[in-house]
Fold:
Amino acid sequence: MSHCFLDSPNTPVEREVLALQNPDRERLRVLIIGSRDGVIETIHDLHRRGFAEAGRWSPLLPAPSTGEVMSILMCDRRKG
Structure:
C-alpha cells in the first residue's frame, strides 16, 4: 500500500512548497479520530503493515467530540 506514497521533505513548509511546485503530486491527508489508546494503537498497526512510519503522524490533537483525540498524516502521492 505504501508504494503509492512518495517520501516527503521533513518540514511542513518544505512539503507545502514542494506540493505547490509539482503538479504531478497530490497532497493527501489521513485522519484518525477516537480514544487516545485507539488512535495510538491504529498508528502503530498501520506502521506494522507498512502504511506509514509512526513518527510521520501529527501529535495527538483534541478532536471536535468531547473526550476524543485525532492525529493527521500528510503525504504526497504521484498523480495518475
